[in-house]
């Protein structure tokens, strides 16, 4: 058996208004991608004689990220030139950070599937500029798009504390969630806003020295991070079993082959010839600045989970849903605060007070099941949805009203599902839909009795069967009555009246 040691290097684009060292907009989205080289200037195209200026917003965002990840924030920092020659970098160097990163010595606690907690140490997080995007056409030409060039990019490096594919995947997922909560990055892996590299080595259990390190690049999803690690563990174990040596190299994931393949041998750090960027001043970060950013830091997933348990009494699974699904988490809180407002209204106060706990639970249930499935069906090809999208489909006010109607027994849960679908499709408010379609619950004795009588006349056989002891005829008759009333008959009363009549 071999012990696996993994370290991660993760890049993520910072969500700022402008690029890192020039005033071009930071908007690397689809529209811009379709128009190559439209969001550029002499600075981000690396023209000779241009001078960079530091984007303060990007510095604030990396400090916030470092604080959220329990890092020490450097009070003294600087930028360095990392020299390498490649067409995606016309200056011949990248402005990055070498020995004085903004953040160092942090950690992130991850929770594994078996509920164990594991602390993964973070070596550093530094700031750099993104490179241009290269694309290679089938006729052998290479095209360069500078829209991405100069976007603020953070690089996070972990200590080799990770030992399994699951841990690596979990770290990336938890990190992504934190970045989204902080609003510092959209961190969408498919869009290349977050990019992972894995350093992996295997050694014999008990060996003091680590094995030969292999780097895996080109990992475009969490699933691929996991798969590529599992693949490497198998590949390297097989080689070691045969007594062969592992070659130190960079490998890339090939999805069509479901394998990692060798790319090139590794350059060592000194070939980058780092030296301090002469065009940028060193940066001093005051304690006041750090405190100011701390105060502005939004609530993090862990804190939110504790609060959701305390304030709303939801169970672990429900909380996990609202933590991971950021838009629905916000939507839930907006709906609850809408309902809380209504509590101040004296005409509704008593009903709401009495049923408050059930009402909150009802909101959670309907969001997690019915509303979510409507969203999933609607958004099939769009990937992620936003809070704005949810609010546009059904306002929290209308959603809260529907929950009140269920909670007060005015409509059954069956009707509620129909109304919700209608609300989603038409944006109409629930009372309107119920009135227009005659869906309000029938609770009065005479009306229900009338429907029951009609059903009994049409279903003489079932009545006989019931009298002869066939119990499931009762359920059949209930079904017929509900259908006849289009689901509006109060179920408890219907059962009572039917039973009395048959007996
Ligand atoms: Zn520019």
Give your account of this protein's structure.
- This protein is α+β, with helices and mostly antiparallel strands and 503 residues long.
- It folds into three domains: 2-294, no CATH class; 299-436, no CATH class; 445-502, Arc Repressor Mutant, subunit A, CATH 1.10.10.410.
- It is 44% helix and 18% strand.
- The protein is built from 17 helices and 16 strands.
- The protein has helices spanning 30-33, 56-68, 165-182, 222-241, 287-296, 301-312, 316-324, 326-342, 346-378, 387-393, 396-407, 413-426, 430-436, 445-458, 460-467, 472-484, 491-502; strands at 2-13, 72-73, 76-77, 80-83, 93-96, 103-111, 117-129, 133-136, 142-145, 152-158, 194-204, 214-219, 250-254, 259-264, 275-276, 283-284.
- The strands form four sheets. The protein has a nine-stranded mixed beta sheet.
- Helix 8 crosses helix 10.
- The protein is elongated, with a radius of gyration of 30 Å.
- The structure holds zinc ion.
- Zinc ion binds next to loops.
Keywords:
single chain; 503 residues; alpha+beta; Arc Repressor Mutant, subunit A; 3 domains; nine-stranded mixed β-sheet; three-stranded antiparallel β-sheet; 17 helices; 44% helix; 18% strand; elongated; binds zinc ion
Briefly say what this structure is.
With 503 residues, this protein is of the alpha+beta class. It has helices spanning 30-33, 56-68, 165-182, 222-241, 287-296, 301-312, 316-324, 326-342, 346-378, 387-393, 396-407, 413-426, 430-436, 445-458, 460-467, 472-484, 491-502, and strands spanning 2-13, 72-73, 76-77, 80-83, 93-96, 103-111, 117-129, 133-136, 142-145, 152-158, 194-204, 214-219, 250-254, 259-264, 275-276, 283-284. The strands form four sheets. It has a nine-stranded mixed β-sheet with strand order 2-6-7-10-1-11-12-13-14. It has a three-stranded antiparallel β-sheet with strand order 5-4-15, with no helix packed on it.
